[in-house]
Write a structure and sequence with these properties.
The complex is a heterodimer of chains A (503) and B (277).
Chain A: H1 2-24, E1 38-43, H2 58-67, E2 72-74, E3 80-82, E4 85-90, E5 96-101, H3 115-126, E6 139-146, E7 149-154, E8 191-197, E9 201-206, E10 219-224, H4 228-237, E11 242-244, H5 247-253, E12 259-265, E13 268-274, H6 284-293, H7 296-304, E14 308-310, H8 333-342, E15 350-356, H9 360-374, E16 379-385, H10 387-396, E17 402-408, H11 413-417, H12 436-444, H13 448-465, E18 468-481, E19 484-485, E20 501-502
Parallel strand pairs in A: 1-10, 15-16, 15-17
Antiparallel strand pairs in A: 2-3, 4-5, 5-7, 6-7, 8-9, 9-10, 11-18, 12-18, 13-17, 13-18, 14-18, 19-20
Helix pairs in contact in A: 6-8, 7-9, 12-13
Chain B: H1 12-33, H2 68-103, H3 105-120, H4 124-135, H5 139-166, H6 169-176, H7 181-217, H8 229-237, H9 245-276
The chains are: A alpha+beta (503), B mainly alpha (277).
């Protein structure tokens, strides 16, 4: 036994000695580069292919925006900035826009980008297979002036036209590569795809031929970790540099100086959509009663730990056109009961609430809503469905009674609100046609202040007619190691790794 | 073995098993008489109260401010209802099928037993998952899925026991006196098989509890806001690092129930076998 102990002691001493010598090795600090250039980020939903013009999935655009470029970009403050286009001219009548494209842009396959690629990409965006085709139907002609100048002509006046060129799906793609873009994306962006193992990770590599200021990061590794608790563990042991956070995690990390937190209201709204084709829900008083019975502060506390701004209408608080309509249908359960009685449902009714089970924030909010509605006698039956089922049954099939979901905002309010036109065929629309005229007017109004006023009126109409019950503007929340700098949140749903670096 | 040593009191597994199961049964019965709080009622201002820290919520409250004790109590109804009824249904069908195939050995018997063998090839939870997607989620779906899962074990047991006993003299004697098959089955086979069936029944309930909680953990059992232990565990998962007590109560409840029924099964096995010998 004694011998064993001595041996053990000797072994431990040896180990510690060797550890010491290891520690002394880097005597000259200038020899080692202390600049870290490999970023690892956790993410929760795998992209649906990396072809920006063949999907509507936000998880795709989050990644592709780093691989492809758009003609123009948008800043954190909602301002338009040059990207592939150096400058642009809008004609006096507002019907034409001409872009001057940079002459030093090369695709990642080595070919130079010319205006013919822009034409090709927009035609591809407008064709049958593109899910965003409807948004670009107004562009009736694309005219190539020369290799670096291109003109777009619209059919009707759209004062917000320019913003349509900043969305990640308006990316410029090279014609010769389109067959494989889903798995082998080729763009002009600051990063190129090195490897994508579906359901595992995506590795992006710095594009050495990028026309702009080259990113400081050499590689960005996106690791798929759907579970929020595992993401948090990854951040805490240092495997992950950036992770998306939930509200309760923000509270835990807030006072810890090892991490920095980015928490900002998103350009998005969480709403409870109501199917106005349903006999009960077609009654405006019922919808108003429901809205008054719902305490949004409680929902925000329960679903996002307070990280959310309550809203009364379909525009998020981040939008420049936002108008506060929270007082139109204020929380008032007593009045709600009266309204329900006036509508003839004194004893309440049974109703189904479909919730997308992959989105915890909507499931949680839905459960709180169900509980709050039960207090005025409305019996809510919750049904959890997979996201795919939600899209096909609820969104496309319009087979639902109520559902809680998020809508990602646009840069222009018209595009975001146009679903409320009576002929929009959307799963929620205001079939009574009360905002049709206002929306058309907004599209044609050149004066910014007057346009804002029209959007204000639309928001007020929506807040009282309630084709949906508007709950909150959720927050984007990111947790980062405190040496990560330069990560920003944009009004469109993208991550931009170009300016990210380690300090 | 002396008779004194073979009393219930010296059979510790049986004793502990009975105590655990009685405890769960007590909670279940109590839930019909009195629950401290309405199990589905939310109270957002009182969420995440640690167990008994305010002397009102013995097991604390969850992320919606619902009382965990009340939810555990109401959840016990679901668990016991689903597991016991599905084992009863499964056992009845299984015993019948086993008896039929033992009686008509040739075409009918062997084809039934081959189908049963096929069913047994599937791992339990996988089979249940598959069945739930076919018959639909919820309580009824879980019961159907678990009872189908239970059929093979019972029919195999009955089948083999009947084939064993068949050649014994007293059965042959009964046959020669002209008793019908049904009479022989009820008067002779059933009493001979009863101890083993009871043992099997008890451990099957333990398995059924596991499957039910797994199904509801995966979101295929009872739907929220109603409570079930598996669902509670699954809801606790997202807060596991900050509020780990949320997972403790349903976890312990599941352990107690499964352990209880399994110990009873084990203990009964020892007890009945010893008594017979």
């Amino acid at each position: 036994m004694k011998k064993f102990l001595i041996l053990l002691m000797a072994f431990i001493m040896l180990l510690s000695l060797s550890a010491c010598s290891n520690g002394e090795q880097p005597t000259n600090p200038s020899e080692i580069s202390n600049e870290k250039t490999e970023l690892t980020m956790g993410y929760q939903t795998d992209p649906e292919g990396l072809d920006p013009q063949r999907t509507a999935a936000a998880s795709t655009f989050v990644v592709t925006n780093n691989i492809y470029d758009t003609l123009i970009g948008v800043t954190q403050g909602w301002e338009i900035t040059p990207r592939l286009a150096e400058k642009w001219d809008i004609s006096e009548d507002g019907m034409e826009v001409t872009f001057k494209i940079r002459e030093d842009v090369f695709f990642q396959n080595g070919r130079q980008l010319k205006s013919s690629d822009v034409e090709f990409s927009f035609n591809r965006l407008k064709d049958e297979e593109s899910p965003k085709a409807r948004d670009y139907a107004n562009i009736k002609k694309i005219e190539i002036i020369d290799d670096y100048n291109i003109k777009f002509v619209t059919e009707k006046l759209d004062v917000e036209l320019l913003k349509n060129f900043a969305y990640p799906w308006a990316a410029i793609v090279p014609e010769e590569e389109v067959a494989n873009l889903k798995t082998k994306p080729v763009g002009t962006g600051a990063f190129e795809l090195k490897e994508w193992v579906p359901q595992q990770h995506i590795i992006l590599e710095r594009n050495e031929n990028y026309y702009g200021i080259k990113p400081k990061l050499e590689t960005v590794k996106l690791e798929l970790i759907p579970d929020a608790t595992s993401l948090m563990a990854g951040l805490q042991v240092g495997d992950l540099d950036i992770i998306p956070l939930t509200g309760d995690q923000v509270k835990t990390l807030k006072d810890n100086t090892d991490y920095s937190i980015l928490a900002q209201p998103m350009n998005a709204v969480q709403i409870m959509s109501l199917n106005t084709d349903n006999k009960i829900l077609s009654n405006e008083k019922v919808r108003q009663a429901m809205s008054m019975a719902i305490n949004k502060d409680e929902i925000i506390e329960a679903s996002s730990f307070g990280y959310g701004d309550k809203i009364g209408s379909h525009l998020p608080t981040t939008s420049p056109d936002y108008y506060d309509t929270n007082d139109v249908m204020e929380y008032n359960p007593e009045r709600a009961k009266e309204l329900l009685k006036e509508a003839g449902y004194e004893n309440g009714f049974d109703i189904k609430l479909t919730l997308p089970k992959n989105y915890q924030i909507h499931v949680d909010a839905g459960q709180v809503i169900a509980d709050q509605l039960s207090k005025i006698g409305i019996r809510v039956n919750i049904e959890l469905v997979e996201w795919g089922t939600w899209v096909s049954e609820v969104y496309s099939g319009k087979k639902f009674e109520m559902t809680v979901v998020g809508h990602t905002g646009r840069l222009d309010s018209y595009a975001f609100l146009s679903r409320y036109k009576s002929d929009s065929e959307d799963y929620i629309s205001l079939k009574t046609g009360e905002v049709d005229e206002l929306l058309n007017k907004a599209l044609q109004e050149l004066d910014g202040d007057k346009r804002k006023d029209i959007y204000k009126q639309i928001q007020i109409v929506l807040a009282s007619k309630l084709p949906a019950i508007y709950v909150q503007t959720p927050y984007t929340m990111l947790g980062m190691q405190n040496n990560v700098k330069g990560m920003n949140i944009f009004p469109i749903d993208i991550y931009d790794f170009k300016d990210v670096y380690f300090e | 073995m002396s008779k004194k040593k073979n009393s219930v009191y010296s059979n510790y597994s049986l004793l502990i098993g009975i105590i655990l199961v009685l405890f769960i049964l007590f909670i279940c019965i109590l839930s019909f008489i009195h629950i401290p709080y309405a199990p589905n009622e939310m109270n957002i201002s009182e969420r995440f109260i640690k167990p008994n820290s305010d002397r009102e919520h013995l097991l604390g409250t969850d992320n919606f401010g619902r009382d965990i004790l009340s939810r555990i109590m109401v959840g016990s109804r679901t668990v016991l209802l689903v597991s016991i009824s599905s084992v009863i249904i499964g056992a009845l069908i299984g015993i019948t099928l086993g008896a039929i195939s033992a009686q008509f050995k040739k075409v009918v018997g062997s084809s039934i037993m081959r189908i049963i063998d096929g069913l047994m090839a599937f791992p339990g939870i996988l089979l249940a998952l598959m069945l739930v997607t076919v018959v639909g989620r919820g309580i009824a779906g879980s019961i159907i899925a678990i009872s189908i899962f239970m059929i093979p074990t019972f029919s195999r047991l009955v089948n083999s026991m009947m084939l064993d006993t068949e050649s014994l003299l007293y059965i042959k004697a009964a046959k020669s006196y002209g008793s019908t098959n049904m009479q022989i089955f009820i008067k002779h086979f059933v009493p001979a098989m009863l101890p083993k069936l009871v043992t099997q029944f008890s451990s099957a309930v333990g398995t059924a509890v596991m499957i039910e909680t797994s199904l509801s953990f995966l979101g295929l059992g009872i739907q929220p806001p109603n409570s079930s232990w598996g669902l509670m565990l699954s809801e606790a998962r997202q807060f596991f690092l900050q509020y780990s007590y949320l997972a403790v109560a349903p976890g312990i409840a599941i352990i107690i129930t499964v352990l209880g029924f399994n110990l009873i099964g084990d203990g009964l096995n020892d007890f009945l076998l010893k008594r017979r010998s």
